[in-house]
Amino acid sequence: MNPLGPRRPPSDSVKATADAGCRTGGDGSAGAHRPTVPWALAGLSLSVLLSSLGTGIAHVGLPTLTQVFSASFQQVQWVVLAYLLAITTLVVGVGRLGDLVGRRRLLLAGISLFTAASVLCAAAPALWLLIGARAAQGLGAAVMMALTMAFVGETVPKERTGSAMGLLGTMSAVGTPLGPSLGGALLAGFGWRALFLVNVPLGLIAFLLAHRHLPADRQGFGADRARFDHVGTLLLALTLAAYALAMTLGRGRFGALNTALLLAAACGAALFVRAEARAATPLVQRALLRDPVIGAGLVSGALVSTVMMATLVVGPFYLSRTLGLDEAPVGLVLSVGPLVAAVTGVPAGRLADRFGPQRMTLLGLLVMAAGALALSMTPPSLGVLGYVLPLAVVTAGYAVFQTANNTAVMADVGPDRRGVVSGMLNLSRNLGLVTGASVMGAVFAHASATTDIASAPAAAVATGARFTFLVAAVLILAALAVCAAVTLVRRPEGRPAPAADGTAGRPAKGGWRRGW
Fold it and tell me: Residue ranges of region Disordered (predicted)?
């Protein structure tokens, strides 16, 4: 069955355009092949799955790596941090680079780098080499994350964009939780090197699918390499690295080093804004952030990701300490969320195509808010079912929101900015996850009135969980207010269509006008 639903018979004009595209590559490049939509989406979906899988699969191997390399936990945790930092700091820059040098060639390079780095990870004889290979793997993953959504506008008809976004969201929802479970099985059966070797055959398949079925790059790409904003990219990468480290180092304690890193991130952000204002071709155009749909999509995406991380932080402690579940049942209960997201993704995309992404974005947030409020009021006496049902509601709402929000943000972005906007969407999600792990974890500990959640009384953990989910509901309502405000203040005709040069319209005193 086609995941995007039934095809519509093409009109004569569409057939003529397709015939011309077959001769010219669809983008003016003579001799290039036409993209085959199902196989192209298969390649993009596998790229998303690989990058998401790499996020969680190494966690399960950290105890083994401490023994193999005779290292401390603080040292081996850089196997995970190097990957996450590479993605977070570089995802916007590589997205913009794809806009300039060609998304297809850069995606193929990213898949190749990810696959080769996986081999290097498995063959690493020392911990520092493993960490370096993981950073290279993270760079490849950043390319795949940034460019997969950007390709949707070039491979899928606009009326089916939501379905394609839902499919990619499903792959992301499956990949992240699949990492620890698959990693545990590989670790038990084949050793720690199998954690990385599993990526090699999948990477080769993704490369072949992308190489064969993705549309060729436009002919004008190569001439724009000089326009890449090196200074802005470096400043943004350093700023994001400082922020991510401030949120992740210290193992739950926010000390002097975290404060210094946070101040460095604030200074870096100020320098980045100043550099972008002076750049001839900035990495992030101001008009992109002034676009109400893009701005609201980024803000709400970060808030919602913060909330989703709260479910991962609170859930294991609530299930084990308050409900008294062992490790295996806890893992089974936590798998309900990703399963619901995987099942909901493609139908959510079809709903976005039918009813419009803005409406479905608001609906997804309303569903999430209802689920979070239910979690904040659920008494422990309702047992596992009292936790699982609201969790399923939150996750289903998240799947609807993510698909619709991505569709809305990417809908009218010009071809020469799809990569950077896709990178910004991924960045907002990653920053939300990083912030949620630190901030929502601190909220949970404070509300539980303890410094060690692992040994806290059951009643204290239950109280902390309810308060944390109440904060989560407030964050979702804030995201809902942002998106609703944008929907209400937009002109009836909506966002203007992109200009011929790929730029988008922006509001001015006299109404909408073209230009960045």
Answer: 1-31, 495-516
Domain residue extents for the chain:
33-215, 229-280, 285-490
Over 90: is that where the pLDDT of 287 sits?
no
| Alpha carbon distance 203, 481 (integer Å) | 41
Element (H, E) at 399: helix 383-410
> How far is Cα 218 from Cα 415, in angstroms, rounded to an integer?
10
pLDDT single digits (tens) 326-347: 767 877 787 787 788 878 888 8
To the nearest whole number, what is the mean pLDDT of the chain?
78
For residue 410, give Cα distances in angstroms to 108, 204, 306, 479: 22, 28, 22, 18
For tokens 């105890």, the residue is: 63
Query: How much is the average pLDDT of 353-375?
Result: 91
CA–CA separation, 492 and 507 (whole Å): 14
What is this structure's pTM? 0.75
Q: How many CB atoms lie within 10 A of CB 269?
A: 16
Phi-psi region of 421 (alpha: psi -120 to 50; beta: other; left: phi over 0): alpha
- With b meaning 16 or more CB within 10 Å and e meaning fewer, what string describes 97-116? bbbbbbbbbbbbbbbbbbbb
CA pair distance 271, 265, nearest whole angstrom: 10
Same topology, domains 33-215 and 285-490? Answer is: yes
Query: Within a 10 A sphere around the Cβ of 6, how many other Cβ atoms?
Result: 6
The second-level CATH assignment, the architecture, of 285-490 is Up-down Bundle (1.20)
Q: Which two tokens stand for residue 113?
A: 């780098």
Distance from the Cα of residue 287 to its chain's centroid: 23
CATH code, 33-215: 1.20.1250.20
Pairing outcome for strands 511-513 and 506-508? antiparallel
Q: What are phi and psi of 508, to 5 degrees?
A: -135, 180
Q: Vertex 99, ends 94 and 100: CA angle to 5°?
A: 95
For residue 320, the 8-state DSSP code is I
